[in-house]
Each structure stands twice: as C-alpha cells, then as structure tokens.
Amino acid sequence: MPKHKPLVSFSTDFGPGNRGHGVMKAVILERCPDAEVVELATNVEGFDLRDGAKNFEGLAWLPKGIHICVVDPGVGTQRRGLIIETGRGDYLVGPDNGVLLPAASFVGDVKRAWHITNQEYLRQPVSHVFHGRDVFASVAGHLAAGVKPQEIGVEVGAGSLAPAPYPEACAENGRISAEIIHVNAFGNVSFNIRNEALHQLVSLDDLITLTKGKQKIALPYKKTFGEVAAGTGLIFDGDFGRVEAALNQGSLAAKAGLKTADRVTLAKC
C-alpha cells in the first residue's frame, strides 16, 4: 500500500485570502515537503475563542493528523504555546488559551501536552505578533517530519491548561442550560450541546422551548430544514456534532436577535 502523506491542517481568524495562510503553508512544507496541507477554517471571527474552538472541532471529520489553530489574542505575551496529543493520535498545535480543548474532546481528549520551549524548532527570528508562522507552523512542520514533541517542548499536566472557552452542556432536571458558540453565514446558531445530549431530553418531532431572558421561542426538533415550511424555525442535530437551531430559508439569528455568547435554556414543551 502507498505510504500516507502526513496531514497538516490549519484554522485561523486571519480571514479568507490572507497572505499569512500562504506563508504558514510554506513554512510547513519547508520542514516537511511530503506534508499534505489543508485549510480547515480561515474565517473564524476575529479574536473569538468560542467561534475558533467550534470551527476547530471540525478536525474530528479529518483523518488523524497535525492540526494548528491560531486564534490568539494573547500572541507575544506570557501565554504558552502548546502541543497536545489526543487519544486518537493527533497533535494539536496552538496557544494555551483553551481554543484547542473542545476539539480534543471530539478525538479522544487530551492524552499528553507539551509547552513549546525549544527555540531550535521555531522559525527565527520569532515575531512577537505572528506566532502562527514562526512557532505553530514551524512546530507542525517538524512534527510532520517525525520530530517527537518531547524534543520540542516540556511536558505539562492537562490540569494546568487554560480552560476551554465553553463547557459541555448537559441535560439536567428536564432542561439544558447552554450558550451559543457559533452563528454561521445562514444565521443558524450552534450551541455547546452535543447531539447525543439532546437525545436524552427529547425525541424527533417534540416541541422545544428555547429561552433567552424573557424571550421564548417554540421550535420543533426535526431531522432537516425541509421538514418545516419556509420561514419556520427548527432545532436539529448539527452536521459537526452539536445541536443547531435555524430558520428554513432564513436567518434565525437575525429574526430572534441571537448572537454568539448568548446564554439560553432548552426544554421540552
């Protein structure tokens, strides 16, 4: 069988078409010419750790590999750079600000972690404001080429890592207290609720009350958009593992005034 090329993905809040992506790719390929480099998400909302973490969770639908996330408002400060090994065998590379952790939970959680310390494996000189290129892309390229993480950094305990930007919501006393972690281009909203957590609370076709403050919205739990009339809302199992709410052929976020970081409650009517 042909040998698989090492896969390296990257996700950033730089915005589509930013030259930083091309430079990061070149740094990776300079260190590992055989690497297959793919963009996972490059349109993360600027500085938004929730949105970055939610988008980065998409790596669970990629093959095992080395995955970079650069949503890094603290770049150049004392915050650590990390390599995380997951239970599936991936390496996640990025800042110690919690943005890597939700994705890790989708691929076997954090198995081991290292604080990036060895200057030998960084692109020199290291910019104070572009660790995506000089630290994370460089480290990812070396990992793809077979360098071991213990050569690049010092092992640290999983308990010492900065917390994730959102917790895992779960059903309790017949309701789920959650938050909105992403709003997509269609105005669909994603919650920090795993699909399987909602299954513990409701069944298909049940009516769910979404509460935000004094606002209450009744939404049916359906499989897909076309099961409700155009302009009608619904809740469904999202295609990347988390529960979503939407308006068929419209924007639920705009209609209901929902946005990232809003706290909501879901309960069966």
TrEMBL record:
Domain of life, per lineage: Archaea
SUPFAM superfamilies in the cross-refs: Bacterial fluorinating enzyme, C-terminal domain (SSF101852), Bacterial fluorinating enzyme, N-terminal domain (SSF102522)
Pfam family for this entry, one: SAM_HAT_N
S-adenosyl-l-methionine hydroxide adenosyltransferase C-terminal domain ranges (all copies): 178-265
InterPro entries, alphabetized: SAM_HAT_C, SAM_HAT_N, SAM_OH_AdoTrfase, SAM_OH_AdoTrfase_C_sf, SAM_OH_AdoTrfase_N_sf
Alphabetical keyword list: S-adenosyl-L-methionine
Signal sequence range: none
Ranges for domain S-adenosyl-l-methionine hydroxide adenosyltransferase N-terminal: 9-153
Record's keyword annotation contains Transcription: no
Similarity annotation: Belongs to the SAM hydrolase / SAM-dependent halogenase family.
PANTHER family hit by this protein: CHLORINASE MJ1651
Protein name: SAM-dependent chlorinase/fluorinase
Source species: Candidatus Iainarchaeum sp
